[in-house]
Amino acid sequence: MSAGKLAAQVGHAVHDAVMGCPKAKLESWEDDGSMIVVLQADSEAELKELQSAATRLKLQSFDVQDEGLTEVEDETFTVLAIGPDASNRVDMVTGTLKLYADAAAAARTEAAELRERLAAAEAELATLRAKADL
Amino acid sequence: MSAGKLAAQVGHAVHDAVMGCPKAKLESWEDDGSMIVVLQADSEAELKELQSAATRLKLQSFDVQDEGLTEVEDETFTVLAIGPDASNRVDMVTGTLKLYADAAAAARTEAAELRERLAAAEAELATLRAKADL
Question: What positions belong to coiled-coil segments (chains A, B) (predicted)?
């Protein structure tokens, strides 16, 4: 999922969460700075487990299903919103998750490593070519 | 801005836009599928121009200012929400913008090119090393 696509899916999750939230709870979240934290789940199965855990704790949650028109397969569960609620309650479900893994950072790290290996290979090539010319 | 950070900022923009939208306009947007499109602006100056253009057309807009606690500088204008409104009206402001540029895709393309160049260099190295051993 591209960064823009993720952002749109999270936007839908926020829309649902805000519209579905009791007024007092929504205002308390807003008074607290309207915190939004985007965390990483690695599969649809993990998203479903998180949703069950939220339900058991009586935390509101909303799943976003992508329509599959563009990047992902038909009716894929892409994003789960939990809350708004007190962060210590949300943390009971999400506390062990990591921040959303940035694919760009990973790809940039890989590119940097490849660039280094290429420079080393090209330096050795230059040496060998010079020897071959002797 | 990482993908997760962008998603959170867009989430704030959607929260503001939904809360600030007149009920009839919000319901009409929801009936139409609650479309959210994440587009690319290249500078804070461009975001400000887009916001002025939206205001001239009487389109509601909301700017998200990052608090600068984590990734970006203090009070940076990161995201502008325009609408909800009829898409032909929003398009009058945003019609020439491209979809949000995916930094991960660009970095992956670069890595793929580097991988190819490295393979070519290593193949030539193997040939030259074999010759040197003769």
Answer: 97-131
